[in-house]
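Workshop exercise sheet. Pairs work together: one partner reads the sequence aloud, the other fills in the structure field after running the prediction. Swap roles for the next sheet.
Pair: D.N. / O.F.
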Amino acid sequence: LLQPFGVIRAHEHKRHLSGAAADPRYRAVVEASESFRSFNPEQHRHARADLERLTAIDPGFAIGFAYLAAIYFRDYQYAYSAGSNDPAMLDRALEVGRRAIELKPESARAYQILFGVLFARHEVAAAFAAGDKAIALNPYDTTLLSDYGGRLVMTGEIKRGMEMLRRANEFGTVRPAWHHFYMFLGSYLSGDLINTVHEATQITAADYPLGLMARALAANMVGDREGAIAEIGKLKSL
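Structure field:
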């Protein structure tokens, strides 16, 4: 129910983004979370502006700082704003991510976001330590398990990472684009042609760069050169 495409998430999205939200802080968190799913640059920038404004007003807004760290991380990763892929953006992400944990040390989500920021900074041991802490705080969060499993795949621990990703697969039928990318990557690195192609075709987000890359590689694997070139063309246009 609480997963990215679950009933509660859908209800909260409709109630807070389509109508008048009672608490602007909660609305900002819901919108930031939705921007992670949509990969919509405009929604990302709007969520960033709201979170920056609200954390300035309320310095105790712990989850706001955590999601702002994720926003800065994605700004660096996907260059949604001019100059935002500067490594200094990761310094800002680390600063506000740590602030979130200082305010709420029992927050699994804050540790998960810190996990991502540290990984992007190539502080791999520290990143997985933060991921371990997040799982210890909430071992039932399948989004967290997917994130952890995917990063295991990225560091070469393909078998262990895929096992965690498959565990997360057991809950729900629709999963976010980045989960399918991790499954694609593990399959690709394992030489599993069938699942490589399958996972690539499950990534339908038009603005997700890694999804376009996955579809290009999958097309190339099956000898569809024109399809691969078309996906690379879309990637360049982003």
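Discussion prompt: The mean pLDDT is 90. What would you look at next?
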